[in-house]
Specification:
elongated
């Protein structure tokens, strides 16, 4: 994945906990490769995206990155999340 700047590990909160403020719903998993190809994985299978539609995933990644929490904030989300067995 080629992105400007450095992107470190982060915890991207899913819809729970309810207090998480997301700029965009996480949706299907995807990876951006060389800035020009996107591999999307979902319940319906995988798909490769190229061309103009790649811009949509760059925008989605930026919105997700804005919603992510790091460091102590990430630790707080993880430690306060409900535990299920």
């Amino acid at each position: 994945m080629t992105l400007p700047g450095s992107v470190g590990p982060a915890h991207q909160p899913a819809p729970a906990p309810a207090r998480a403020r997301l700029a965009v719903y996480p949706g299907d998993g995807f990876g951006i490769f060389d800035g020009a190809r996107v591999e999307v994985e979902g319940y319906r299978g995988g798909e490769t995206i190229t061309g103009d539609r790649v811009r949509l995933f760059h925008r989605a990644f930026e919105r997700l990155r804005e919603s992510a929490v790091y460091g102590d904030d990430a630790r707080a989300v993880i430690t306060t999340a409900p535990r299920t067995a």
